Amino acid sequence: MSIKLGLAVLVCIFVFSAIPANGQQKGQYIPGQQGLNTGVLPDPGFTYANLTMNYSADTLKNAKGNSVPLAGSYDIWAIENIFFYVPQFKFWGAKLAVMVVAPTLANGSLTLGALNFPNVALQAGGEGIADTWVQPATLGWTLPRVDFYAGYAFMAPTGRYTAGASDNVGSGYWGNHFITGTTLYLTKNKGTSANLFTDWEFHGSKTGGRGTTLTPGQAFTTEWGLGQVLPLKKDFTRLLQFGVIGYDQWQVSANGGLLSPNIPASALPYYSVHAIGFQTNFILPVKALNFFFKFEDEYRAFARPEGRTIVFGGSYTFRIPKLEAPPSGPEAPATP
After folding, report:
1. 261-268 long-range contacts, Cβ below 8 Å, gap at least 24?
2. Which candidate, 155, 50, 63, places its Cα nearest to that of 110?
3. Could you tell me which residue, 108 or 202, shows the higher pLDDT?
4. Is 98 within 8 Å of 135 (Cβ atoms)?
5. H/E stretch holding 101
6. Mapping DSSP to helix (H, G, I), strand (E, B) and coil, where does residue 265 land?
7. Distance (Å, rounded) from C-alpha 275 to C-alpha 62?
8. Could you read off the pLDDT of 130-151 as tens digits, one per residue?
9. Which of 75, 144, 201, 232 has a CA positioned 20 to 30 A from the CA of residue 58?
């Protein structure tokens, strides 16, 4: 099962546009962490997931989607430790889930991309613990052909941040995220599924250099996927899942505050990005183990880098109560 690994904790704050080289403020959620099974919450019990993510880009697009000449590249590596708890009881007929992503260990340019403009050196990078994602309330419903959840999460600025520093790892501001996940089963045995994840994020303000403040504009993200499960053993104890996935992210409101005493942050162009790729899962339902790999290539971007995302890792659920027997027959679920 690909649990809700999309609940990211990385922040890339300043991405520079070409004329002038002003900072483009981005949101907190880096897309590419969802994909298949986005509407499925873990079984009751404790779930641990480890997710490694890499985002790399050597192309920068301006507000019109045209490439900006530059030298250098943009590269992020992060390791997320994700903890889920789902009690046995139900609330309003739904599963209740709590999730925390911490610590996230980040190595790369989280606040200033290593994107070098001609005659402007913007090398920056930091190592350490990034911001903390807390998802205190998620409700999930299971219907005959649909799994769906809705929840709220906030991002706490626990990562290192100092205005004007070049080695920041954290964002320096709070974020609020309203999320949904939907998995629609296109076949009776749940082997074929269509998936959609959404995140609408609202941001607090952060301090900048020289007494300036900035409030990042709201962002809206969708991640989608079309997947197929194949049994590797007739008793359904080993499953292979594969499919096409993608993501889209838009800034949907203006930035607030001041870039400098004379330049309002609302003057920055809105950013957006679009990507498509693939995902594979190796699932052991009885053991409650899942291993996954995702690759998505960005084919269109505005006022931000255009690159590629790689995500891989695994998850384990300590079920309460423990599963006694493996699923069997054509009604076997597509996820553990």
Report:
1. 261/210, 261/211, 261/212, 263/22, 265/25, 265/214, 265/215, 267/22, 268/17, 268/22, 268/23, 268/24, 268/25, 268/303
2. 155
3. 202
4. yes
5. strand 95-108
6. helix
7. 17
8. 999 999 999 999 999 999 999 9
9. 201
102-139: b (≥16 Cβ within 10 Å) or e = bbbebbbbbbbbbbbbeeeebebbbebbbbbbbbeebb
Q: Which domains does the chain have, with CATH numbers?
A: 14-319 (2.40.128.130)
Structure tokens at 2: 């690909």
Specify the amino acid at residue 69. P
Residue 44 DSSP code: S
Helix then strand then coil, in percent of the chain rounded to 5, is: 0, 55, 40
Contact 79, 50 (CB under 8 A): yes
Q: Which residues contact 110 (CB under 8 A, 6 or more apart)?
A: 10, 11, 12, 13, 76, 125, 126, 130, 159, 168, 169, 170
Over residues 238-284, the pLDDT tens digits come to 999 999 999 999 999 999 988 877 888 888 889 999 999 999 999 99
Residues 154, 136: Cα–Cα separation, whole Å: 8
**pLDDT one-digit tens code per residue, 79-94:** 999 999 999 998 888 9
Token pair 């790689």 in the structure block, residue: 310
Which residues does residue 261 pair with via DSSP β-bridges, in sequence order? none
